[in-house]
Amino acid sequence: MDPWWRHPLVFWVLGLPPTAWLLGFFLIPLGIVWLFSFAELRGVIGMEVTGTLANYARALDPLYLEIFGKSFLFAGMTTVVSLVAGFPVAMAIVFASPRWRPVLLLLVILPFWTNLLIRTYALIAVLRIRGFVNFSLEWLWERGDWGLALIGLPGVLGDRFEPLELLYNNTAVVIGLVYVHLPFMVLPLYAALERLDRSLIEAALDLGASQWTAFRTVIVPLAFPGIVSGAILVFIPALGSFLTPDLLGGTDSQMIANVIERQFKGANDWPFGAALSFLLMYLTFGALALRAVLSRGRSAMDAG
Amino acid sequence: MSLNRSLRPSRRSFLAGTGAVAAGLTVSPKWGWGAEAKALNFYNWDTYIGETTLDDFKGATGIEVTMDLFADNAELFAKLRGGNPGYDVIVPSNDYVERMVAAKLLTKLDHAKIPNLKNVAPVHMNPAFDPGRVHSVPYMWGTIGIGYRKSRVDGVPDSWKWLYDSNKYAGKVALLAEPTTVIQIAAKYLGNSMNVTDPAKLEAAANLIIKQKPNIRVFAEDNGQDLLLSGEVDLTQEWNGDILQVMAEDPDISYVVPKEGGLLWEDTLAIPVGAPHPNNAHAFINYILDAKVGADIANFIQYATPNAAARALMGKDYSENPAIFPPTSVVESSEVAIYQGPEYSQLIDRLWTRINAA
B2, B223, B350, B354: best mutation site toward chain A, by most A Cβ within 10 Å? Predict the structure, then answer.
């Protein structure tokens, strides 16, 4: 006889609540927004679904396409920096002693205990002119200036300390996005690296590979699924960010989600906002499909 | 959830149904026939009421006030346009009173239930955005001008030029992240009315900002006063009350309304359509317009009260403070923003998107 959990009734009873949730709170609202994207405005708050494609035509204006492009650039840079910064962290956690591992993992997810808005404001306190980075630099500057004066080189570092303007530019946006999304990169990388058979690394080293070659030809390919999941988990939410560019960005840090947000608020143009949202979704799907095709090509190549 | 008025019948009834369920969940039940529960839902800006006003109101009437906060008018409008989630009193600004009236989101006030309207200064009783005060009563008013750090600026920066058309303070200047306001003030600097609707004139205003962009540090999200206080910028476009708050902390900061004229605004108290406790709402509005209550609120939040009786109760450092009550000449050169309809909002948004992308 089948075990009880194979009984179809169990499947339905357990599956119904999440399905209803998904349907009621995700698919139906999403469907409504999808309908809005084919609507025309009537008066101040009225909308009529007429099947018009005008909203999509407007969204394809070069002005908006450029902003899409910029958002992809920001999200792409965030993904790359997160990967470069996250890989050593994940490696360190995997190779740490079992006693320390849970503590280190806890440290990675610790920022999630604080609200995103508060974390972003904290970053402002770190980066601003009278912030912690500039305080530290000023401290170093004073020591350096004093030291140079002692050895007969006064004033080499300038007359006074000039604080760095770290906030309100595109770099600040990428720093903010990396800070927020780094755990999403570290955790899948950790999961992939943790499963990795260490004897393979030892074998590579025994057979004469340098540390770097072993890393490049053994560890990275084996961690590839983790890299891909991490990249997706970072790229997609980073693409839809609006809070970070709002708070940390300068006068040219606008991302597409900022434009979308305005359509639902100040501009009060829901159909256009809906069209932009769905265009963003289609582009994301497109990027994912492209990745799937590429990785299939890659595994075919590996096999061949 | 009842999201719109002119979708086709089948969808409308579906949405209306879900809306009714949502309303049933959020609106507190009424006790008895005709009587209202001793409750009131107040939707307000942050730090925009007296320290004890809500408790005092409960002491006086037994009505318990629940206050939610919104960050800007756009958020207030977005929250209410799909149907009132249960608010009794809201605080829209002048142009949003017009927008909400156009969208049929505000109820008419019953002046008989607001006898304290007699305390309001006559100049505030018949504004263009709400003639006869049919839908709103005045709560606070003020200007948008320039907050600046005295030690880093030559003299008094009494022209919009220093923000919009000069590299003298390059990188030390912040404009607001309020698309309509920022573009309207640029248009005014170029010699137009703030409420000009000619697309070519608005285009020119946007181009002025694009040209100035290398000198602008940031479009500030209503935190210009913090940027000024922390030395991030030396000049910032801001609401007078926000600058007043940091002037109290740092005597090196000051505020001026430029000679070209600033933007005059007024925040109002209004009752949205579908308010569950309309009688309590009228009682609350009447209470706020009381002279003593109005003075307590103004004393705490340091904005200009339109309540003449309340102002008379206040000390001179408030009632004759030019940063709170600007001189008549400034009021006369300044303008009130008018709501210009959906096409205008879309044009402004497109220009703003272009400014940010340039």
Answer: B350
- A303 pLDDT band, cuts 50/70/90, is low
For testing the chain A interface, which of B93, B352, B353, B355 should be mutated: the one with the most A CBs within 10 Å?
A: B353
Contacts of B348 in chain A (CB under 8 A): 267
**Among candidate residues B242, B259, B264, B239, the one with its CA nearest the CA of residue B336:** B264
Q: Write out pLDDT tens, residues B2-21.
A: 333 333 333 333 333 333 33
CA nearest to B186, candidates B260, B275, B259: B260
Task: Say yes or no for a CB contact (<8 Å) between A43 and B99.
Answer: no
Quick check: B72 contacting A, CB < 8 Å?
Answer: yes
**Alpha-helical runs (H) found in A23-97:** 28-36, 54-59, 62-95
CA torsion B101-B107-B112-B116 (nearest 10°) is -70
- Look at residue A14 in the predicted model and tell me its pLDDT: 87
Topology of domain A62-128+166-303 in CATH is: MetI-like fold (1.10.3720)
Per-residue pLDDT, averaged over B332-344, amounts to 92
In angstroms, the CA B280 to CA B63 distance is 7
- Residue B356 touches chain A, beta carbons under 8 Å: yes
pLDDT on residue B12: 31
Measure A252 CA to nearest chain B CA, in Å: 5
Residue B46, chain A, CB below 8 Å: the answer is no
Nearest to B101 by CA among B270, B289, B265: B270
Q: Which long-range contacts (CB under 8 A, 24 or more apart) does B299-305 make?
A: B299/B50, B300/B49, B300/B50, B300/B51, B301/B47, B301/B48, B301/B49, B301/B50, B301/B140, B301/B241, B302/B241, B302/B244, B302/B245, B303/B140, B303/B141, B303/B142, B303/B240, B303/B241, B304/B140, B304/B141, B304/B142, B304/B240, B305/B140
pTM of the complete model? 0.87
CA distance A233 to A242: 17
Contact A268 B352 (CB under 8 A): no
Residues of B in contact with A168 (CB under 8 A): 217-218, 232
8 Å CB contact of A259 and B213: no
C-alpha closest to that of A39 among A29, A49, A24, A25: A49
What confidence score (pLDDT) does residue A293 get? Answer: 82
| Domain edges within chain A | 62-128+166-303
All domains of chain B in start order, with CATH: 35-136+270-325 (3.40.190.10), 142-264+334-357 (3.40.190.10)
As given in the structure block, the two tokens for residue B109 are 């006030």
Tokens for A35? 């309908």
Q: Which residue has the tokens 């300038």?
A: A158
From B82's Cα to the closest Cα of chain A, the distance in A is: 8
Rounded to whole angstroms, the Cα distance separating A258 from A250 reads 13
- Residue of chain A minimizing CA distance to B224: A247
> What is the rounded average pLDDT for all residues in chain B?
89
Summarised one tens digit per residue, pLDDT across range A221-235 is 999 989 999 999 999
Rounded distance between C-alpha atoms, residue B267 and residue B72, angstroms: 11
Residues of chain B neighbouring A246 (CB-CB closer than 8 A): 177, 221
Containing B107, the helix (H) or strand (E) segment is none
If you measure CA to CA, which chain A residue comes closest to B18? A24
Nearest CA to B236 among B228, B247, B244?
Answer: B228
Question: Which residues in chain A have their CB less than 8 angstroms from residue B75's CB?
Answer: 265
Would the pLDDT of B93 be above 80? Answer: yes
